[in-house]
Amino acid sequence: MAKHSYPESVDFHAVGVSSDSEQNPFRIVQRQVDEAAALLHLDPGLHELLRWPLREIHVTLPVRMDDGSTRVFHGFRVQHNDARGPCKGGIRFHPEETIDDVRALAAWMTWKCALVDIPLGGGKGGIICDPRNLSQRELERLARAYIRQIGHHIGLVKDVPAPDVNTNAQIMAWMVDEFAFMHGYNEFGVITGKPIALGGSLGREDATGRGVMITVREAAKKIGLDLKGARMVVQGYGNVGSWAAVLLQDLGCKLVGVADESGAWSNPNGIDAWALKEYAKEHRIIKGFPGLGEPVPPERFLELPCEVLVPAALHNQIFKENAPRIRPRILAEGANGPTVPEADPILFQNGVYVLPDFLCNAGGVTVSYFEMVQNAYNFYWDLKTVHEHLEQKMVTAFEAVHEMAQKYKVHNRLAAYLVAISRVAEAMRVRGWA
């Protein structure tokens, strides 16, 4: 039986409510949209429509716990924009989830899908919970309860969820099974990131980290950086950070700094990224791995000298105060929103080549789209085919951003927004939305 930790009292009317601070992720997204819309001279109606989700679903989920009690959870599904196609985006389980987090992530999915030019819009979901305090049976009941609430609002031509923070292929399997039970037929393409036995795609596990590697490789070509021997620092050693590290190590990069929730370390002699990946998979943290080197204060970790910096953990890690001291040649955003808007001009002025999140980490949604295609055709690709298609999509998207940055003489994040927003706005315009 799982050990449960309940607050003394819960104000359910306030659950999931975000602050209105400048670092609120949804406020950040809106400011970034405003900046791009001004440069594009976007129609005011289209501009305002892009600032807000088209739909939001707030759900209350009663779940029978293993001890026989019933606990009430709260969750969301946000469908930001479906002008270019069905919404697409993950479902996360997190104790501090808020509606504005989900709104921001849904909007980033809209831009991400447009940037890699796949015919999907942006969506995102979340449940406020701590999965570490739930048994497998409780997780299954929670996953199925969520689908019972949103199941009529998702589907292959509506909105397609996927795994995200603290969710995985098994949780997706329970969800797709509950959807099939509700509707009386199998529609495996309604959810991606599934086990291979239920129509999952080969190449999904490393897709996001592989996308990071591809964009770093292409950026290195543009700035004349030889990746053989290039020092690499990785913040966050979960799925994205670990795969980015091992694939970049295969290109010749040397891992000299690594951090996760257990701490931060620096080793100028290099850390074996593959061995560390196996250790982290077994122990769930990197602390205790031999060869990590010397501990580093977490607040100074991103300032370690390196050529390639990969923040692959949390949002709002690089801000106005520490940006002047962060000087890699390439900053590859494996995480969503690690850099606040005020830091971008500083990094740009200091010559840091930033690979913005919704370009750099778009490999995951790209292979999720490939999974949808394979499910629709009921014909499945080998790993080589998946990698070839991912390579083509990521390189083409990188070139579009680089060319836009050169054309407008702006930093790469703004260039990425210009590419993505112009594509979404055009779809909205020809559909007659404004």
Describe this structure in words.
The protein has 13 helices and 12 strands. Strand 3, helix 3 (99-115) and strand 4 form a beta-alpha-beta unit. It has 2 domains: 50-198, 3-Layer(aba) Sandwich (Rossmann fold), CATH 3.40.50.10860; 202-434, NAD(P)-binding Rossmann-like Domain (Rossmann fold, 3-Layer(aba) Sandwich), CATH 3.40.50.720. It has a 7-stranded mixed beta sheet. Helix 1 packs across helix 13, helix 6 (207-223) packs across helix 11 and helix 6 packs across helix 12 (383-408). It is globular, with a radius of gyration of 21 Å. It is an alpha/beta fold. It is 41% helix and 18% strand. Residues 1-15 have low confidence and may be disordered.
User: Rg, please?
Assistant: 21 Å
Uncertain spans, ≥5 residues at pLDDT below 50?
A: 1-15
Using the coordinates shown, work out and report the CATH topology of the largest domain.
Rossmann fold
CATH architecture of the largest domain: 3-Layer(aba) Sandwich
List how many beta strands DSSP finds: 12
Provide the helix percentage: 40-55%
Globally, the shape reads globular
The first-level CATH class of the largest domain is given as Alpha Beta
**Considering the protein shown, what is the CATH homologous superfamily of the largest domain?**
NAD(P)-binding Rossmann-like Domain
Structural class: alpha/beta
How far the N terminus sits from the C terminus, by CA atoms, comes to 54 Å
